[in-house]
Specification:
mainly beta; 5 strands; about 0% helix; about 35% strand; binds zinc ion
Length: about 70
Protein backbone atom coordinates (compact mmCIF):
# COMPACT_ATOMS: atom_id res chain seq x y z
CA UNK A 1 0.00 0.00 0.00
CA UNK A 2 1.44 3.35 -0.96
CA UNK A 3 0.62 6.38 1.09
CA UNK A 4 1.25 9.85 -0.26
CA UNK A 5 1.69 10.95 3.35
CA UNK A 6 5.22 9.52 3.28
CA UNK A 7 6.28 12.70 1.54
CA UNK A 8 5.32 14.65 4.62
CA UNK A 9 7.75 12.77 6.84
CA UNK A 10 10.47 15.33 6.31
CA UNK A 11 8.27 18.15 7.47
CA UNK A 12 6.05 16.80 10.18
CA UNK A 13 6.55 13.74 12.30
CA UNK A 14 3.82 11.19 12.31
CA UNK A 15 3.22 7.58 13.14
CA UNK A 16 0.98 4.96 11.63
CA UNK A 17 -1.25 3.09 14.03
CA UNK A 18 -3.58 0.18 13.56
CA UNK A 19 -7.12 0.33 14.83
CA UNK A 20 -8.02 -2.60 17.09
CA UNK A 21 -11.65 -2.53 16.05
CA UNK A 22 -11.58 -2.49 12.27
CA UNK A 23 -7.92 -3.26 11.55
CA UNK A 24 -7.43 -0.12 9.48
CA UNK A 25 -4.13 1.71 9.58
CA UNK A 26 -4.12 5.46 9.87
CA UNK A 27 -1.78 8.32 10.53
CA UNK A 28 -1.46 10.14 13.83
CA UNK A 29 0.67 13.11 14.75
CA UNK A 30 2.37 13.93 18.07
CA UNK A 31 0.52 16.21 20.49
CA UNK A 32 3.55 18.50 20.81
CA UNK A 33 7.25 18.83 19.96
CA UNK A 34 8.46 17.09 23.13
CA UNK A 35 6.39 13.94 23.02
CA UNK A 36 7.13 12.53 19.60
CA UNK A 37 7.43 8.80 20.20
CA UNK A 38 4.29 6.71 20.32
CA UNK A 39 3.61 3.56 22.31
CA UNK A 40 0.65 1.42 23.24
CA UNK A 41 2.01 1.08 26.77
CA UNK A 42 2.22 3.76 29.42
CA UNK A 43 5.26 1.96 30.88
CA UNK A 44 7.28 2.62 27.74
CA UNK A 45 8.20 6.08 28.93
CA UNK A 46 9.02 7.71 32.25
CA UNK A 47 6.62 10.45 31.45
CA UNK A 48 4.02 10.30 28.75
CA UNK A 49 0.94 11.97 27.39
CA UNK A 50 -2.14 9.88 26.81
CA UNK A 51 -3.98 10.81 23.66
CA UNK A 52 -7.10 9.23 22.25
CA UNK A 53 -6.94 9.31 18.50
CA UNK A 54 -10.12 8.63 16.63
CA UNK A 55 -10.07 6.03 13.88
CA UNK A 56 -11.20 7.81 10.71
CA UNK A 57 -12.81 4.62 9.42
CA UNK A 58 -14.90 3.27 12.30
CA UNK A 59 -14.71 6.25 14.70
CA UNK A 60 -13.32 4.13 17.54
CA UNK A 61 -10.95 5.72 20.03
CA UNK A 62 -7.40 4.41 19.77
CA UNK A 63 -5.38 5.22 22.89
CA UNK A 64 -1.73 6.05 22.31
CA UNK A 65 0.89 7.15 24.83
CA UNK A 66 3.31 9.76 23.57
CA UNK A 67 6.65 9.98 25.29
ZN1 LIG B 1 -11.24 1.58 13.13
Amino acid sequence: MTLPASEASEEGRFTMVKCDKCGSTFEITPPDDVHDLASWSQEAFKESVKVEHKCPFCKSDVTVFWG
